[in-house]
EOG090X093U
Amino acid sequence: MTSRKLFGKELNEFDDVDVDDLLTQLSAEELEILSKEVDPDDRFMPPDQRTNYHCDREATGPVNRKQLIDHINKIALETPDQPESVPFVAGVVRGKKWIPPEAPVIATREDDGVSFNLEDEYEQALGTATEEELVDLAAILGFHSMMNQDQYHASLLNKDKVGLGWDGVTKASQPKALPYEPPNTLDPEQAILKVDDDDCKTIELCFNNINMTDDQFYRLFKALENNTTLEVLSLSNTGMTDRTAEALAEALEKNSSLRIINLETNQISANGIVRLIKSLLVQKSIEEFRASNQLTAHVLGNKAEMDITQYIEQNTSLMRVGLFFEFNDARSRVATQLQKNIDRTINGVLLANEGSNSQTVKYVDAIPLFHHNLGLAPMLEVALMQIDSYCRTAGLVIAGYYHASDAVGEMSPDAVSQKICEKIAEYFPNACLVLLNNRLLSKQMTQSAISIVQYSDGKWKIKDKENFKILPNNEAALNSVSSLLSKKIYKNFVDFDDHLDDIQQDWLNVALKSIID
């Protein structure tokens, strides 16, 4: 072990000495001397308490800044300069003169250029190419620095030569002057009346850059509590404070139609933003929430960021958040949760009564599987084992599979869906694969959005619509689906992604099935 010494004494013998015991043995004078040797390094402590020097003389009077500066200048002028060890003589170098070292000579080759051994055909083509053709070739090869921006983009768009020539200097183009945004012409009073009257045509309202009074905020948020049509509300740069934000939070706890809300560039504190994020957990209808650039909360602080993160992790409907997080932990956790909430490809299994004949299959139930970890074999195995155990007790059998892609209008099953359905077909030969066309989903369904594919003779074949029926009848089923979509019942669905994160969530969706029935 390396010895440690201070003024010739070993320091190892002081390792077990208690500092508090040493301080109790010091006198008041010794403690005062010790305190002068230690700088507390506390920026909140006044400077006269931090400095080692303490003047014991009494003040001679109030501080006169001008008189103090004049006195300092007078002392500086009257104090003689320190004599130089070597007197200054013009033209004489005092001390050793610095001579820069000789720069090393770098050997260069006679041919500094880069030579290419091209075939005669390529050399002839490049030698006879025009400047426009060379620009196009450079754009294809990605040589952005060999041309200016106008040349590059013009070559991509097959336009004529723009700007400088081929030998010109590469530089950015002058930005185009854009016109100023016109002022907001919305009448706040008329807009508040429309919200209060629940106007079916008022789906989006923009109050941006309108200086609203507290009374207008309170009336707007009071009307918002019972509104069922407004979906987008923008209140950027309207002068909102914590008082009015509390009224908005109470409205958000009662309103279920609002999807997007923008509160940027206001005067809401970090606690106010936490209160608003917490209010989104009641209805879980908000999909986009923006509240950055607050005048009083440029930085939220660790406690507020952790609270916001916990509330967002409990929210399954929020997909976009406009907030600045200073700490990486909060930022990464929020990003992970939002990624989970974004719509993805979903899948599930279809159940039929046990003992169904080979001619007709009647699906009586559906169990959602995943929306995030679609192709993980261990999770899929756990889910299918639990579903199979439930089917045995309920007199059901896994007789089909459904798949909905995250791409709009995509109607082809992926490799995972095909393999799962082929495995189901081994135990239930008439198993069907139901594909969902999300382009046809709307709040007013007029036609079926499903397509049925069956595995036969080693191929997937689409069944005609005449070969399957929706019970009790197609019109009643479409009306039921339209009603469920309007009420956003789908947000309460629990699949095995949710269940494996929290085993208290019911993957059978018993409460939800009672609403559907």
Summary: Residues 23 and 409 are 79 Å apart (CA to CA). The radius of gyration is 38 Å. Residues 188-341 form a domain with the Leucine-rich repeat, LRR (right-handed beta-alpha superhelix) fold (CATH 3.80.10.10).
